[in-house]
């Protein structure tokens, strides 16, 4: 009898151990896991969007309708402004809506609802009402064959809007923690998911419920010679550029992932620039009006005397996103390496 009891206890401990171990996930399964946890822990949470009941075009919602029911995970008409307006109304009544816009390129019909209603709801009511718990998810960025209607990076439009938070993850671990934090944040959040990482980015992800604080950038690699700033999928490109620079130029680069674009954690960047004296910012979106310009302006205002070279921006071109010329448009590792080299070799005397 005692042996059976010991064996049973051993089996239970092994079950608990394996259930608590991190699991191998890619980006879309980590997002799926985060939404599953949100729906499980919050009975007021709902998930909806175009084709969401069937798992979504990128399969991020796979299995959630079957688990949580068709009243909490459901399809909507093909109408982005309707999705946004419906989500705002639900949030205003105390629900926790997770609204999916199938592609970030198609968020523009909902732009008025998001920037004029959701972002200003708390302000215009004198903090009497709010849309806390409102999250808009949208796949963004290049995918290799998306052309001008399935490749855009619209983050800068929303970063110009007080009242919103804008979040972009770089990996499965980050995606799960940042999405759970976004869903539970008392402000409306635009959560942009780098779609070419959905299946290509793989990590061991904790299975438990956890959050990653919004509004905090992360130094993911320490260095002494150049500060490099990016977010989302562009971090992988920048890591490649840094490897090239460190091998060929004999320098070290400090890499910062913003994670939250609004509010912007400028203090982390300032601290790094005061150490390195040089700054490069890179993003897929067009250069003019892009977030790199705002970062550069704030560093010029707050750390000008520490700069040893002009701030560099490596971004997309000021054109619609091209299909057959995507590889020329994209701010790839070689373009970033050349910008790093130019920063390192800059001479004020010339």
Low-confidence stretches: none
Tally of helical runs: 13
Query: How much of the residues is beta strand, in percent?
Result: 15-25%
Number of strand elements: 14
Describe what is shown at a glance:
The chain has about 350 residues and is an alpha/beta fold. Helix content is about 40%, strand content about 20%. The termini are far apart.
Describe the structure.
The protein contains 13 helices and 14 strands. Helix 2 runs parallel beside helix 8 (172-183). The strands form 3 sheets. Strands 3-2-4-5-7-6-12 form a 7-stranded mixed β-sheet, sandwiched between helices. A 5-stranded mixed β-sheet has the order 9-11-10-13-14, sandwiched between helices. It is α/β, with parallel strands linked by helices. The radius of gyration is 22 Å and the shape is globular. It has helices spanning 2-20, 27-41, 64-68, 80-92, 111-118, 121-124, 155-159, 172-183, 234-249, 266-276, 291-303, 326-329, 333-344; strands spanning 23-26, 45-49, 73-75, 96-100, 135-140, 165-167, 189-194, 202-205, 218-221, 226-230, 253-257, 260-262, 279-286, 312-316.
